[in-house]
Amino acid sequence: MENRFESRYAVSPVEAKAMDTTALRSNFLISSIFEAGKVNLTLSHFDRYIVGGAMPVHGKLSLPNPDDLKAPYFLHRRELGIINVGGDAIITADGIEYALAYKEALYIGKETADVQFESADSAKPAKLYINSAPAHHKFPTKKVTKAEADIVELGSLETANHRIINKLIVNSVIETCQLQMGMTELKTGSIWNTMPAHTHDRRMEAYFYFEVPEKQSVCHFMGQPQESRHIWMQNEEAVISPNWSIHSGAGTSNYTFIWGMAGENLDYGDMDHCAINDLK
């Protein structure tokens, strides 16, 4: 089976205001993350960010090098972050193997020519969620477990947003050029993530929702603070968040999501907060 690569142009706030549900979904929602035996990638023109997934079942999958990148190999001038949301995985980066269990992360630095993905057990395939951004410097490849993450607990059950933020690929844990990734786990009874909402004009972001129970969904909110829109999302789908957009969600149950971002800085706290009562 062939891998899938898609390129999406950037969208301005003016264009987004006029979009109907179908247009919003086609521009911002990424629904085909995992397909057995494939690597699926979507390039956003917001900061040249790539979102995708690899699902090896029988044998190895190689990280492809789409023609659109016009590079000798994928990571020639890029860095890569991976978080495993499936069965145990083995990732080989230039001949060095890294075992990746559920909810563990791997950062792969610039100039890594050969990357391969494999499931430890084909009956329990790995699901490797991938984010990539342009890179100007070569930093070492490094695995990050949840025990090594920078962990923050926020919110409360009373406001339905009690959550644990696991900062996995961030500058307080490892060195990167601009890529940052982490995972937020909502406690039982909590449904809201990233509330109060915020924007950060200096970098874009992407959300990937998983552990959404069967027959449940997440409503993702986007748009300018006074021109908000929503996209209903299902389990194991991702959404692109432009620099000018809020990014927040509420589920019909608790769930987990992975956030990834890139842009001008590595300051995790660089956020322009929006008061809840000011959202429209």
From TrEMBL:
Enzyme Commission identifier(s): 5.3.1.17
Highest taxon in the source lineage: Bacteria
Pfam family, one: KduI
Membrane in keyword set: no
Residues that bind Zn(2+): H198, H200, E205, H247
Pathway(s) where this gene product acts: Glycan metabolism; pectin degradation; 2-dehydro-3-deoxy-D-gluconate from pectin: step 4/5
Cofactor remark from the record: Binds 1 zinc ion per subunit.
Entry GO MF terms: 4-deoxy-L-threo-5-hexosulose-uronate ketol-isomerase activity; zinc ion binding
Catalysed reaction, written as an equation: 5-dehydro-4-deoxy-D-glucuronate = 3-deoxy-D-glycero-2,5-hexodiulosonate
Cofactor: Zn(2+)
Keyword Zinc in record: yes
One of the GO BP terms on file: D-glucuronate catabolic process
Keywords (A to Z) from UniProt: Isomerase, Metal-binding, Zinc
Family assignment from sequence similarity: Belongs to the KduI family.
Function field: Catalyzes the isomerization of 5-dehydro-4-deoxy-D-glucuronate to 3-deoxy-D-glycero-2,5-hexodiulosonate.
Protein name stated in the entry: 4-deoxy-L-threo-5-hexosulose-uronate ketol-isomerase
Source organism of the structure: Pedobacter westerhofensis
UniProt lineage: Bacteria, Pseudomonadati, Bacteroidota, Sphingobacteriia, Sphingobacteriales
